[in-house]
Amino acid sequence: MFESQFQSLQDNIERVIKPYQEECDAGIRKLFSGDSLLDRAVRYSLDAPGKRLRSALHLIMVEALGGDRDKSMAGALCYEMAHTASLVHDDIIDNARLRRGRKPVFQHFGLDAAIVSGDALLIRAFMMMEELRDTDISKEDLLDIIQCTSSMGLKACHGQLMDGKMGGGADVSVKKYIDMITCKTASLIEGPCESAAIFAGRKDLRKQAGLFGRNLGIAFQILDDAKDVYSCEST
C-alpha cells in the first residue's frame, strides 16, 4: 500500500517539476560544448539521467516568492553543477561501479580526468554565480548568495567525510546518521532554496526557505536509503 502511495506522490511531483527540469536541461546543454577531454568528461557527467531536483527547486522557490525565475537561471545551473561535481568525486571515493545506470566518470575517462572535471564543475558553478551581476540583483544580495552557496559546499564536504568514517556500521546512532545526511545531502538542497529567497527579494523568509530545503533533503535521503535496505532484504 505504502509503495503505491509513494509512487503516486512521486509521479505528481515529477509532473509539476518537469517544465523546470526541461529549462535547466536546455541551459546545461550550452555548457562545456567543446571537444577537449575536459569538455567531454564534464558533459558526460552532466548528461547523466537525473531529475535536476536542486536547480528545479531553486527556480520553483524563486517563482513562488515572487521573483523572476528567468533571471535566476544562472543560479539554478550553479547548483546543478556543484551537485554533479560532488557525485563525480563521491564515485571516486566509493570506487563506484555505476552511476545512474552507467559507468561513473573515473571509470569512463580515467581518474585524472574525473578529478579535474569535478574541479572544473565547481569553478564553472561559481562563474555562473558571478553572471548574476548582469541582473538587477544588488551587490549585497549577491554576496549573501555567494556566502550561502559557499556554506552549502563546506557542509557537504563535512558530510562526505562523516559518511566515510561511519562506514555503514551497525553501531551508528540515529543522531549521527541524521547529522551526516543533513550535511552531505540536505545542505545541497537547503542552499538552492535559501538563496532563492534572497534572489526573490524575500530575505525575511531566507531562514524558512532554507529549513524547508534541509528537511526535504533529509527526507529524500532517508527514503533513498530505506529503498536500499528493503531491496537488500528482498534479495
Description of the structure:
This protein is an all-alpha fold and 235 residues long. 76% of the residues lie in helices and 0% in strands. The chain is built from nine helices and no strands. It starts with a helix and ends with a helix. The model has no long low-confidence stretch (mean pLDDT 89).
Instruction: List SSEs in N-to-C order.
Output: HHHHHHHHH
Q: Extract low-pLDDT stretches.
A: none
Strand content of the residues, in percent?
under 5%
Mean pLDDT: 89
CA distance, first residue to last residue = 20 Å
Helix content: over 70%
Number of helices: 9
Shape: globular
Give the topology, please.
Layout: H1 2-28, H2 37-46, H3 53-64, H4 73-94, H5 105-109, H6 111-130, H7 139-166, H8 174-199, H9 206-234
Helix pairs in contact: 1-3, 2-6, 3-4, 3-8, 4-6, 4-7, 7-8, 8-9
What is the compact description of this entry?
This protein has helices spanning 2-28, 37-46, 53-64, 73-94, 105-109, 111-130, 139-166, 174-199, 206-234. By secondary structure, the chain is mainly α.
Keywords:
globular; mainly alpha
